[in-house]
Structures are given as C-alpha cells and as structure tokens.
C-alpha cells in the first residue's frame, strides 16, 4: 500500500527540519511541491525525483499526488513551515475524502514561520498569540480586518503572515491602523524576511515606524502585546516570572 | 566562549525533534530542564550530563544555567514544544539582560503543541488561529477570559494550552461557555493528550460534548471556527480552495 506524506519542511534549511520530515522525504518515490520550496531542499536529496508545481495550483498539485499514489508510489507533498498551518494538509485531506481514497495520509508538522521568526527576534511570543494571514485570495478582507480588530482588542501578540504582495500593498497599512486603535505607537514590532533561509534579515522597530521597512511575501511580522519590550536588541514578551 | 542554547525539543520523541535541537544537545556539556522533559529525552543522549529541576523553579533553573555557563560550560536549557511559545526563552533572556551577561544565547524553536496536536487530528488549523493558555499562575483570569471572548468573536480556530490542572478544574467550563456565545454547539473540537508521547490519545467531538472527555495538564484542545468540519474521522478547516 502506498503512502502520502504531507510534510512541513520548516523554514527550508536542513537544520530546522525534523527527523520525521527527513525520513518521509527519503521514503518517498516522488516529492511534489511549489517550485520555491522544492528549490530549498532539492540539493539535500540528490537522488530523489521532484515534481515542481506553480502557485495557485494547489488543487492540481494534490490531484497529481493522488494519481502518483494510485500508481503505487510513496509520495511526499511538501509545504514550507508547518504543513498544517496555511499549508497543504487541509486541501490534501479534502480531496482524499472527496475521492473516497483509502490511501493513508500522514500529516507531518514542521516549524511554522511564527516560531522561526520569533527565535530570531528573541522571545516575542512567550504568551497568548494570534496568527493572521493578510492574503484575501480565499478570505474576505472584512473578516481579516475583523480578526485583526479582535486580536488587538484582546492584547494578543499578533503574528502576520503574507503581509504584502504586489497586488496587496495597502492591507498592512490598514492592519497597522486597526492595531493602533488598541496599542501604543511604541509597541515593539519585529520584521523578519527569509527566516532560516539565504538572505535572512530582520529589523526590530515599533508600530509607529514599521512601515518604513521592507515588507513583502517572504516577510513575517510579529507585533508585541502591551507587556512586550525591547532590550539588548531582542524583543521579549515577559510571561510574568518574578525577577528580583 | 561558552554558549547557552534554549532548545525546543518538540513533543518529546526524537522523530519530531529538529536537527538543530539535536546538535545543540550534543554540543552541550550539561542539559538542564524540568524533570518531566528530561525524562523524555534522557535515553537518547546516554553520555550526557543532565540536571533536573522542578516546576515553578523557572527562575532558579535559568540562574543555574548562567552559573554553569559562567564556569565555561556549554549549556542546553530544554523546553518541550517550542522554546519560544510559553517556553524558557523569555525568562532566560530576561535574566541574561538583568545580569548584563555577554554569553551568547541561541533560541532554537521546536514543534509547538498546537502543531503536533493538529497533525494528529487532521488539518484543523489551516486558517487564522489563536493560542491561549488557561494557566492563571502569572496571568489574570479576567484577561484570559477576555482573550477567549475576542478569539471566539473573531471566529479564530482556538488552541487551548494548559486547559485544566488539579486546582483549576472549572476554567475550561467557563472557557467553553464563552466560546458558545459566538459558536455553535456542533463546532468540532479535538482533544489530544500526550501528543507525540507514550500514551498518546485523542478524541474528536464538538463544543456540546467536549467536557465528557478526559482533560488535564497534558492535553491540548483545538476548537474549530465556523467553517471547520469533521469527515472520515479527521477535523478539517478548509482554507477556501475550490474543489469541483
């Protein structure tokens, strides 16, 4: 019986990949994924067969995985970060259900972008947090703004995924405006690009100045809560331990 | 120059640990941690020195780490899950700042409990989510309830950490009541105990019936949003892809 693995590869370097993810890729006859993610790991698995696929081709990609597994192959479908957080696990399981396939699917979690970005910035998400994607490809923009409003009102640390694309330049401006209704201008903000990848860079700033930095699709933004502070170039959200 | 690693070991099995976490533990002269977490990994590193420490001894534990590093040793301070999410990274960095120590600290992320629990349940957190701990040891209970209210109002998938302890039996009842103000009784709920560990077990139920299941300190609860559904024994929160 063939297997389908939905593998979270983490940020994209081998060091931050789990053993289980690595073993699943080694066990697969074919590895299928978005070409940007394939590029990140291809050189680590030189003897493997890879099939690249374009963005917005998620449904076709899963159908290809089912076809290959139907031919008896073990297939690894890769996602960057965690396969279960804005990754490929959901759509893969949905299609398996629809086709009433009996092929076993194993979902393998990975280090999600909020975790890798946080580790670079210090310890900004030591407490309750919300993760919100600004991509409105499949989510109404009003719902995204409502979630930002609720997260800010609840004084959550807020992790923003997909903050900006070529066609969505102003969502992050509106997002910041919403958060500023509840949070001070001095609230610490960390902006991490290419976390754990080539050309990794990060900036530590605040809500007032955050829009002065480069923000794009490869960026994760972490906005502190009312307790968050910056010290020694690190962002820290204290959990409340008493330090004398 | 010695180093301090704050290592997220993931759920506690070697398969879900990253290579970087494993290398840091191998590179350490001493591994320090809460005894429950030491127990999970001790056998994998038979030649290492471990120092166990009790719960609520977080500050003392970090002071011990600083002392050992001050003696020239490489020290790994371990957290289960992600060291940056309710883990030891924050308090370690706070104490380093306070003591003006120059010893480098590397924060190493791991698979957080929400990710491991989700992978067992199917794909419940494919969309915007909030993580909330019900522990009020260091957080006012009113703030915890307010965050639950905001997260439910924003239709976030909600991941609840530390849902219940011996002294906190009724917070989860109140939490459910709050969420029911905004969500249907049929909203899918996944309850995972000992994710990725010995005696792992999970139940898939709904808001109406969730309190009939065993919930304790080793449990993570994932509550769906208004789109979440159960099919073939898996919880799925669709991201909105069109499936014909």
UniProtKB/TrEMBL annotation, chains A, B:
Tell me a Gene Ontology molecular-function term this record carries: precorrin-3B C17-methyltransferase activity
- EC number(s) recorded for this UniProt protein: 2.1.1.131
Is Cell membrane tagged as a keyword? Answer: no
Q: Which SUPFAM superfamilies match?
A: Tetrapyrrole methylase
The name this protein goes by in its record: Precorrin-3B C17-methyltransferase
Q: Which GO terms describe its biological process?
A: cobalamin biosynthetic process; methylation
Name any one Pfam family assigned in the record. Answer: TP_methylase
- Domain Tetrapyrrole methylase, residue spans: 3-209
Q: Keywords in UniProt for this one?
A: Cobalamin biosynthesis, Methyltransferase, S-adenosyl-L-methionine, Transferase
Keyword Transferase recorded: yes
**Pathway, per Swiss-Prot/TrEMBL?**
Cofactor biosynthesis; adenosylcobalamin biosynthesis
User: CDD domains of this UniProt entry?
Assistant: Precorrin_3B_C17_MT
Q: Which organism is it from?
A: Pseudobacteroides cellulosolvens ATCC 35603 = DSM 2933
């Amino acid at each position: 019986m063939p297997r389908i693995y939905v593998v979270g590869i983490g940020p994209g370097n081998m060091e931050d990949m789990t053993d289980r993810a690595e073993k699943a890729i080694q066990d697969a006859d074919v590895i299928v994924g978005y070409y940007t993610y394939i590029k990140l790991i291809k050189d680590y698995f030189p003897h493997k067969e890879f099939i690249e696929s374009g963005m917005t081709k998620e449904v076709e990609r899963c159908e290809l995985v089912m076809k290959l597994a139907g031919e008896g192959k073990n297939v690894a479908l890769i996602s960057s970060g965690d396969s279960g957080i804005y990754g490929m696990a959901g759509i893969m399981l949905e299609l398996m259900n629809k086709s009433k396939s009996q092929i076993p699917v194993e979902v393998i979690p990975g280090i999600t972008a909020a975790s890798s970005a946080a580790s670079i910035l210090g310890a900004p998400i030591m407490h309750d947090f919300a993760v919100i994607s600004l991509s409105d490809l499949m989510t109404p923009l009003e719902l995204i703004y409502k979630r930002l409003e609720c997260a800010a009102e609840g004084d959550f640390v807020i992790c923003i995924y997909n903050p900006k694309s070529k066609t969505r330049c102003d969502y992050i401006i509106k997002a910041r405006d919403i958060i500023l209704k509840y949070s001070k201008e001095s609230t610490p903000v960390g902006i991490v690009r290419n976390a754990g990848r080539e050309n990794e860079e990060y900036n530590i700033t605040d809500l007032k100045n955050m829009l002065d930095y480069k923000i794009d699709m490869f960026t994760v933004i972490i906005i502190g809560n009312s307790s968050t502070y910056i010290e020694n170039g690190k962002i820290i959200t204290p959990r409340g331990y008493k330090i004398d």
